[in-house]
Amino acid sequence: xxxxxxxxxxxxxxxxxxxxxxxxxxxxxxxxxxxxxxxxxxxxxxxxxxxxxxxxxxxxxxxxxxxxxxxxxxxxxxxxxxxxxxxxxxxxxxxxxxxxxxxxxxxxxxxxxxxxxxxxxxxxxxxxxxxxxxxxxxxxxxxxxxxxxxxxxxxxxxxxxxxxxxxxxxxxxxxxxxxxxxxxxxxxxxxxxxxx
Length: 196
Ligand SMILES: [Zn+2]
Ligand SMILES: [Zn+2]
Prior knowledge:
This protein is mainly α and about 200 residues long. The chain contains 8 helices and no strands.
């Protein structure tokens, strides 16, 4: 019993790294698939669903409703396919304990992405009390107003890295930022991108 507890404590950092890495991979894949499939005709049905339902329901200044309305044309089940395929692959690569950690983290991350997108569009969401949530919600609304930007749902630093980040009007006023400054460019030419 004591040995099991000691093993668990020693393995905790590795479990944490595995869980964090899994979440980052899921959030990166969500950002990429949203951009490449949800907003490009190459996505076929995923593209039509996303544009005709989610972006039609929530557009311009109608960005929240009393309850989430995008059940019809929901793409979520399609995204489970690559998740299961990736899960099957890592099953043969990772030891069982790390695979279990990755599977749990992947499920939690997937659920978090679905939850955030739902809560962004619900009027009076219980998460509205948190400033960090309101900030992410505003960045997601920017995506609905400017569909070529902010493809992430939870971690918008992926958009900074991909060069598709666009600040919200609120932040533009607050920080007097330029609408878009890709992270790589702002690091390479900090002076050129300095805001007034
Ligand atoms: Zn979209
Ligand atoms: Zn949305």
